[in-house]
Amino acid sequence: MSAGLTSKQIARLLLVSYQTVAKHRQAIFRLLGVHSVAELALGIAAAGLGDTLSEL
């Protein structure tokens, strides 16, 4: 998600189903208390983790 990939693209890349990615995405959002990728990106930037994640 941090690289801007859609759930379908992530599923293809990881060779898993779209539903698997969607479930994990929902769990991540719930754990972090965000409701969208935009909110997630803002949280990453606010925590100063933007550069760290781009290296992964």
Q: Indicate the percent of residues in helices.
A: 55-70%
- On the 0 to 100 scale, the average pLDDT is 84
- The structural class is mainly alpha
Q: Which stretches of 5+ consecutive residues score pLDDT under 50? A: none
The total of helices stands at: 4
The biggest beta sheet is recorded as:
none
Strand content: under 5%
List the secondary-structure elements in sequence, H or E: HHHH
Structure explained in plain terms:
With 56 residues, this protein is mainly α. The protein has helices spanning 7-14, 18-32, 37-46, 50-54. Helix 1 packs across helix 2 (18-32). The protein is globular, with a radius of gyration of 12 Å.
Brief descriptors of the model:
single chain, 68% helix, 0% strand, 4 helices, mainly alpha, 56 residues
Summarize this, please?
It is built from four helices and no strands. With 56 residues, it is mainly alpha-helical. α1 (7-14) packs across α2.
List the helices and strands and how they pair.
Elements: H1 7-14, H2 18-32, H3 37-46, H4 50-54
Helix pairs in contact: 1-2
